[in-house]
Amino acid sequence: MRARTFLALLAVPVAMIGVVGSSSAAPGGGKGKAHRDEPLAEAIRQVDRSTAWRLVDRIPLAFETHHPQGLAAVGDKLFLSSVEIIERPTPYPEPDEDGYDRSPGKGVGHVFVLTRDGKLIRDIEVGEGPEGTIYHPGGIDYDGRHVWVPVAEYRPNSSAIIYRIDPRTYRVTEEFGYRDHVGGVVVDRVTGDVHGVTWGSRRMVHWNRHGHLRKVEQNVSHFIDYQDCAYVGSRKQLCTGITELATADGGRFELGGAALLDLRDNAILHEVPLPGFSTAGHTITRNPVLFEVDGDTLRMIAAPDDGEEGAGTELLVYETDLS
């Protein structure tokens, strides 16, 4: 593992799902290859509040899944990031001398490699492990060659490391570090640039392929906090996530949804709430989500529940006909 270089957060006021399309174009592949992913972006634009989703499969994962975070497909394999929490961060009465509002906690970052029917192939550890503070993987993306995985401290305004994993050899390479919590990354297949979201997706970060900071902007949308994002073609990313709202009886309601964004300027092209709840009562877009398009069928695969909740982590497969 090479020496880490952390890139500082801009000291100025600053303004993100696994997704599969029809292309496996690598970064720098040019317009033609990116355009072959366009059917997925177009399918997402057709989804609205009246779209009828059908639960067509429920796949239990029979291993310790912990707290899943991101999902990406590489051919017939699924990559699922997850955080194993050994010691939860503890809130401080007031921020410490470094500005942290909580302790770092302890944990281990995992990227599980699965078959399509949920069988575990490999458990890849990422991050610094229980002896370090960087152990929380986020939303992941497959760029046609590698699976990109951010691993951060489990607290806001902290630090993160961006890794890539070779899906054939499972070799993990540390790409660059960044001084903020990075909760998800997406690679632009046209430019090779990397785009990320911070804690609660309140900041949108743009680096070049090697981690040189290009831009940090505020997320202008407050509809949902993005939990998992991925490339969908034509320089667009699709992000899913949740927001928690208070109910009249003092409880909490999880609103799930998706947002299609232009990677060039972070413009929101389409936003839509998504229905459905898990065995444990979570909105289906709480954490990992994967979208696929197959002709007129749009498929959504989600893993909203933690390993110790309800029936454990299940892959919930939903489909809708857009013909």
The coarse overall form would be: globular
Largest sheet: 6 strands, mixed
CATH C-level class is Mainly Beta
Approximately what portion of the residues adopt beta-strand conformation?
over 45%
Binned, the helix content reads under 10%
Structural class of the helices, strands and pairings?
Answer: mainly beta
Low-confidence stretches: 1-17, 21-37
Provide the succession of SSEs. EEHHEEEEEEEEEEEEEEEEEEEEE
How many runs of DSSP E, i.e. beta strands?
Answer: 23
Q: Output the CATH topology.
A: Neuraminidase
Count the DSSP helices.
2
Structure explained in plain terms:
This protein has helices at residues 31-35, 38-45; strands at residues 6-7, 18-20, 54-60, 67-74, 77-87, 106-115, 120-126, 136-137, 141-142, 147-152, 160-165, 172-178, 182-187, 194-198, 203-207, 213-218, 225-233, 236-246, 252-262, 268-273, 289-294, 297-302, 314-321. It is mainly beta. The strands form five sheets. Strands 1, 8, 9, 10, 11 and 12 form a six-stranded mixed sheet that branches. A hairpin with a 6-residue loop joins strand 11 and strand 12. It is globular. The termini are far apart. Residues 1-17 and 21-37 have low confidence and may be disordered.
